[in-house]
Amino acid sequence: MKAAVLYKANMGLEVVDVEQQGPKAGEARVKVKAAGVCHSDWHIMNGDWPLPLPMVLGHEAAGIVEEVAGGVTNVKPGDHVIFSFRPHCGRCLYCSIGRSILCDGHNDTPRWVLFDGTHRLTRNGDEIKQMARIGTFAEQVVCPAEQLVPIRKEMPWPQAALLGCCVPTGVGAVTRCAEVEPGASVMIVGCGGVGLNVVQGARLAGAGIIVAVDLLDNKLEFAKQFGATHTVNASKSNAVEFVRGLTAGRGVDYAFDAIGGEATTLQILDAIRPGGTAVIVGMAAMNVRAPITPYMMALQEKCIKGTMYGSVRPNLDFPWLVDQYLAGHLKIDELVSRTYRLEEINDGFAALRSGQVARGVVVF
Fold it and tell me: Are strands 80-83 and 209-214 parallel, antiparallel or unpaired?
């Protein structure tokens, strides 16, 4: 089968033929139907997250279960599924308290090999790793069945793929992590795929003021479609002063950084009112640091927190998000700016980096 493999940082993905072993106990084989082009993949491609290579990237995807091995009970052949890039062992502390995104039940093996410590992909006899144990830029994936969530078969494939990362990450940051209440004031920095879903998460939560901030006017136009009540081009205006002007000088109740970086982290912390909450959603490079002022944090009782994967519970939230889309409450069609063949995947990342798209999707 064909897969997009990263052999060296900053050299792009190579679409090559690879050999795949069948599923072992607790695993399933899935025919991939669509996979999103995400900034997290780019962080590996450009060396921000130095991981061992070669590796098949891709983590935001959906497909059809073709085969299951012994011990698999949550999915069966023919099921339509969304991949979860986080495991769910069901036994550890975090799974037990409903925070399965933090599952540490499989920490004895690296996150680019299967749970038994072995690989399922090779090329010319050399082992190939899988991003997040799935690696969905491939025609087929063998992965732990616990990382598959069955969904309704009416869900179209490109839209289903985006429910594997950018939609739950953005919506969940609002509804699961911050628990934004109706009428609250919200600012979102960064209007890519995740940021747009923070915007619509705020809309679904009933927020009163929703301010979208970006450097590109086309992305701010996207944000209006997803529910932003106000937009600010931060290359032309001071976003913090703007939100203070809307809130009697106090600042917003909640601010979300959908980019991930020193400047944007400090910006959302500055934008919230005393007693407000700043949430880091976007994943920064591993070496990024943001100097905060502890005195002001204590004096103004500000809260800063991070969210991984929107703090969602995939087994519960993915099917709910599907229901919301099919009922017309969740905008996903508008996110799919372009589709690509697997052979065009590097074009997809070029469009991502230049800000041309809300989300690009590889369709198989």
Answer: unpaired
| Active site residues per annotation | 38, 40, 43, 59, 165
Residue-wise pLDDT for 241-273, tens only, equals 999 999 999 999 999 999 999 999 999 999 999
Q: Does domain 2-163+332-363 have CATH number 3.40.50.280?
A: no
Q: DSSP of 63-131, one letter per residue? A: EEEEEE-TT--S--TT-EEEE-SS---SSSHHHHTT-GGG--TTTTS-TTS-TTS--SEEETTEEEEEG
Class assignment of domain 170-308? Answer: alpha beta
Q: How far is Cα 120 from Cα 30, in angstroms, rounded to an integer?
A: 13
Measured torsion, CA atoms of residues 33, 336, 307, 258, in degrees rounded to the nearest 10: 150
Pairwise CA distance, residues 146 & 27, whole Å = 8
For 333-352, b where at least 16 C-beta lie within 10 A, e where not — what string? eebbbbbbebeebbebbebb
**How many Å apart are CA 59 and CA 84, to the nearest integer?**
8
Q: Tell me the torsion sign for CA atoms 104, 319, 146, 170.
A: negative
Radius of gyration of the chain (CA): 20
pTM (global) more than 0.85: yes
Identify the bridge partners of residue 227 per DSSP, sorted by sequence position: none
Looking only at the bridges linking them, the beta strands covering 126-130 and 55-56 are parallel
Distance of CA 148 to the CA centre of its chain: 16
Count Cβ atoms below 10 Å from residue 145 Cβ, excluding itself: 22
Average pLDDT, the chain: 95
Indicate where the chain has its CATH 3.90.180.10 domain(s). Answer: 2-163+332-363
Residue limits of CATH 3.40.50.720 in the chain: 170-308
Q: Is 49 left (phi over 0), alpha (psi -120 to 50) or beta?
A: beta
